[in-house]
Amino acid sequence: MIREMPRAVVGGALVLGVLLPLAGLVMLAATLIYLDPPAEPLLEIDAAEEKVWLDSPIVIEIPGVFTEEEVREFLEIVPIVPVGEEDLVVERFAKLPWFGWLSLDKTRVTINPQESRLFEPETSYTVRLKDEILRFETISLPHVVDAHVDSDYGSDFKIVPTTSPILLMFNVEVAWEDEFLDIEPSAEVAIDTEESPGGGTQLSVAPKDRWENSTTYTLTIRKGVVNVFGHEGVEQFSLDFTTWPRPRVIEATPVGRHLPLDTIVRVEFERPVDRESVEQAFHVEPNVAGSFEWETDLLAMWRPDGLEYSRTYVVSAGGKSSDGDPVEPHEWSFTTHDPPVSVEILGSDRSPTLLRAVTRGGTGEYSYEWSGGEISQEIPVDLWYEETRTFTVTVSSGDRIAGAELRVVGPPSPCPGGWQIITGEVCYREEVLPGPVRVFVTRVDLSTPDLQLRSVPASDFMGVPSTVSRSALSRDTLVSVNGDFFDLAHAEYFTASPIVSGGNFVYAPQGGKIVLALGPDLSSWAGRADELQFHVSTPAGERKRLETINEPPDGDGLALFNSYWGERLSINVNGCYALFVPTDPVTNTAYESSCGALDNIPLAAGEFVLVATGGAAEWMMQNIEHPLTIDESFPLSDVDFVVGGSHVLIQNGAPAGGSLPAGRHPRTAIGIDEEGFVYLVVADGRSSASFGMSLAELQMYLDGLGLLNAINLDGGGSSTMVLRGSVMNTPSDGRERPVASVIEFTHKHATCRHDFVRC
Length: 759
Prior knowledge:
Largest sheet: 8 strands, antiparallel
Number of helices: 6
Oligomer: single chain
Mean pLDDT: 91
Shape: rod-shaped
């Protein structure tokens, strides 16, 4: 169903239908009439360089209406430029303000309206603002972009050669004026400019003569340098550089002492040098001629024509480097060695000898040192038998040293083959004979004046026993063995036969068995002990037998006592005594005499006492006022040594006749050969290790030694040999047995002036 509209409504619709198109036409016409598009960006351009000034404002128009906040949001400058509040102005331009919503207006943006220096020189900028893009380059301001040293040694500003220019590169071509250059400390320089390969200007600052060595310079380019476009530099440029030091001698040889005469002087420089200047500056004191040889411009050698011994030379080097720098003066010294020295050793190559170092050359003053540490020119050499030693000597004279050596051989062995050398006079041997029998033999050369064969009590006094080792220790003997048998008739430890030592009559009992006697000339005799007899004679020629020495006399006898008995004489005898201090080897006069009990009579060293009983006492007292003479009779004209034993085994170079007891036991024997060698023999026995010897076996053994006379000594448990303090054999008792007497070899004792006293 069609409904009619009211008339008024229809009329209004017609009006709108006409007015709306009309309005559109009006707006279109207005737009066309008032159309004003955005202008091109505006910049201030330098006419000479055709680039934007650094303080140029930039005006950009963009369509539309924008606030400053919106503009700052859209604005982009590359590289970034800080845009402050005063650096940006935003203006809006609208022809028909009521049509603003149609975006027919535009916005003008001015960057850097104050014309401050907002931009950097020589920079390409891009400015974006909405759809507008603006690209431009700023003008150039002159400044130094590079600096280096014009040198073959590199461009290190810390070691600038003194003749090298400093090169400065400007970014653009400049109109240079010397007034813009300052140098501190002041230096006269030559300045040159030339176009650089990059189109800028290269400034060369060179010393007119040379820079000072080891000096730090400050080179300054002040503000105000103008380039060819008329732009003035606004930056000051400063450069510090240090010149290298004067060239040095980095090594100079030789130095020190003790140098040979053909020494060559070598000088090495830090930098190449001018050879002529170095040779002219070179000096040696004291003056010596020589010639130069150059390996390179860095190394010179000087060969002297002739140096002298023991002389100190002072060398100085200088000159100039190849670029003219003076070389730092250098001085050193060296000393040549002293004249050569030689040495030889004079002396025999056989010991004993005296070695002497004979020197030649040198300074004339010598010091010596031998291989043994001696520092004398001569040394005595006394080698052991058959020892071989090489002696060296070093002689020093000044700083020179020489040496020599000599091989010296000791004297031939004094001992037969297979014997051990104890000393030059004492030989020792051990051997095991079939049986077995262990035998210990010591041979002593009595021809030497330093040794003495002694037959003495085992202790200081007769009748006091001691072991052989204890006796040897107390007397510091070389060799000791047990001596004579015990006299079993005495309760004390007395020997059965006489004892004579060093010509002193120590003991002489009545009777006795057999003895071996030696004279001072090493003559020997073996036989019965009673062949030794003593007599006392008066000036009238009366003689009385002296029955004993250091043994009490019988009821009608005469005896002599000395300090071998003890310090005092007390014997159970009634009789008379007389004290003598002999002042003459033959005659003796009593200084005191008495009769009665013989008790507590002093026995001093160097004195003797005659004791008499019965008729002998009467005779002595009748003659006591007269000098008395005591003498001995014996097969030997002079007696030095007597020891007793049991049997003569070797007599006059052959085994003694007569029967010998059987039975093997430990044995001790003594004998002497024709050359004066005394043999002490000990054989162990009574054990499975050594059965011992019979006297016949001992006799055979001694005969094998080539002896002239020999006797058998006490044996059994007494047999002991001590060599230099050590017991060599094994005593059969398992330990040493105390003995009454010993035979010992010792260093020579003082000889008494009288045969019947103890020294």
